[in-house]
Amino acid sequence: MQSMNIRDRGRLILWFFRWVCSNYERGYILGGDCNGIYLGKPLTHLVDTFVSVAGANYGSAICEMLPLAICNLNNGLSCRSHRLRELNSRKHRYEGKYSFSITTTNDEKVGGWCCGHKCASLPNNEAEFVYHGPGHDEVLYMVN
């Protein structure tokens, strides 16, 4: 469930991303250097609304239990990865004019807590909408 709606004049209206994609898209919007690759200038001024659905914005708690490649400390989903620390250290929202997160208290993929933060919370967002009960995939299906 990735979507990007674009207005005729080229202004990005809504970026809507989930789970792993959320962090990649946040990085693309932020721009700059990522692991020696220049991603371009920031796109913040082009994005009106960014919504993260069950995104591993602070990482995935699974990384604390399993040595998976996706949990690497460079650009992976470990809450201690260089890229996540870089994305989450910003004092101001950069994903767009408005940003929101949709999370669940029963997320079996992203998990609950990552380095002292709710794993799926989005730093500096306008609001967080929390479902109580449904799992990760159920939340994705509910908002699709």
What's the SSE blueprint?
Layout: E1 3-6, E2 12-18, H1 19-30, E3 33-34, E4 37-38, E5 47-53, H2 82-88, E6 98-104, E7 113-114, E8 117-118, E9 127-131, H3 136-143
Parallel strand pairs: 2-5, 5-6, 6-9
Antiparallel strand pairs: 1-2, 3-4, 7-8
Explain this structure.
- By secondary structure, the chain is an alpha/beta fold.
- The protein has helices at residues 19-30, 82-88, 136-143, and strands at 3-6, 12-18, 33-34, 37-38, 47-53, 98-104, 113-114, 117-118, 127-131.
- The strands form three sheets. A five-stranded mixed β-sheet has the order 1-2-5-6-9.
- Residues 1-8 have low confidence and may be disordered.
Instruction: Name the overall outline.
Output: globular
The average pLDDT value, as a whole number, equals 86
Largest sheet: 5 strands, mixed
Computed over alpha carbons, the radius of gyration is: 15 Å
Detail the poorly predicted runs: 1-8
Count of distinct structural domains? 1
**SS field, number of helical segments:** 3
- The helical percent reads 10-25%
Bin the strand percentage. 25-35%
Number of strands: 9
Supply the key terms.
9 strands, disordered N terminus, 3 helices, lipase activity, two-stranded antiparallel sheet, globular, 26% strand, 144 residues, Lipase_EstA/Esterase_EstB, 5-stranded mixed beta sheet, AB_hydrolase_fold, alpha/beta
Quick summary:
It holds the Pfam family Lipase_2. The chain is of the alpha/beta class and 144 residues long.
